[in-house]
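Notes from the 1:1 (GR / supervisor)

We went over the backlog. Supervisor wanted to see one worked example end to end before approving the batch request, so GR pasted a single chain during the call. The sequence is below; no edits were made to it. Supervisor asked that the structure be written out right there so they could see what the output format looks like.
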Amino acid sequence: MQKITFQLPVPRYLKKILEIKYGNEYQAKETTLFGMVVINTLQKKSDRKYTFDKMQSQNDYFSITLGMDKAQRNGFQHGQKRAFQLSHLIERNIREELYNACIFNQINYGIEFQTTILDFLTMYDITEDELSYETLRKDFNRYKLKNLHKFK
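Structure output shown during the call:
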């Protein structure tokens, strides 16, 4: 089966997480949520608007492969705006998973929020320069205020 590979611009720390979760090259399939989102946001070359603005904080690329027949039906590229939106969606989803794990660990096991966040950063080998603990802590505190009632 022939495949096509395209590069999704993502921050360096997000690439580390995606490579651990999905491998160095992700095969997009409609049977997974991530694959479905990737496939449904593809554009054909004729639909693309060519703008070349720099994308802030997008320092690396995550490889995604797609079967040639799907690429011909759906397209095989993301416009710059759509690629940024997809990257942001993935990042938001991963942060929500982390924050839910923080709350779950605190309620069920008495594990401090800080420990869960620091373990997450260590597990994915994310440096302070790529994503700081303080950034996650502040974002988590905002998330916790809005969503803590869901866990009780």
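Supervisor's comment: The beta strands are 3-10, 25-27, 60-67.
Batch request approved.
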